[in-house]
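Extended Data, panel c. Modelled sequence:
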Amino acid sequence: MRAAEPAGNRSTLAHQVRYALRHPERVPAHARRAARDAWLRLRYRDHIAYYRAVMASDAARSAEAAVGHNPSREAWTRIGRMQFDYLMGHGLQPQHRMLEIGCGNLRAGRLFIDHLDAGHYYGIDISPHILLAAQETLVSEGLQPKLPYLALADDLTFAFLPDGHFDVVHAHSVFSHSPLHVIEECFAHVGRILAPGGFFDFTFDRTEGEEHQVLREDFYYRTRTLTELAAKHRLHARFMDDWEELPHRQSKMRVTTAPDRARTVGS
């Protein structure tokens, strides 16, 4: 897998034709995905409800497929380890309290749970199907004594979570599937739950051209759009250049509250 680079507009007919000519073997899978999208759009107008149905469909194939469109267990393990190693390199300590948005079936969460003190990991997801798979991961990894919290969420207001509690908030491959109003909802509320010196890391699909979406599942944003949206909610966002050195197709940003720009965890 190559490192992240800005995407062109993948929603255009020209791109789709070029892609089909280069990868004819992938056309049937894309056609099935497009048909599913059309059916689900008729049933669900709200994006969260729509994407919950997408996750249920993917999870029916395999839990790994539902967290990255890739059923390979090797890829699941490798990408989880990449996320964990990155935060370890940025100062994640056992005593830190962590919230993982879109925890999935604990691809990286199992490593965070093992590293953190008992009760210091909190994972949320919009999919009940994938949270059941997360429970299976806890059992298979023998992590029950760590008492992680796993909760179903309908939005990103974090209303049920306490003020100033989390040293690290983490969202991998969440905003890549989110329209801008969902991201803004997160920005409007994440500052409240961050502890002094805490930070919020998220990945996103980056473009330097026209912002666009494909099948309501994949959203592409300019870095400046997200930086300015964070500033609107009194947050400071910066592009994480060192993540670009890793073999991952998405880019990463880090958000802190304005008073914490100079005293971030692990800085």
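Strands lie at 98-101, 121-125, 149-152, 166-171, 194-206, 212-214, 218-221, 235-239, 251-257. This feature is highlighted in the accompanying rendering.
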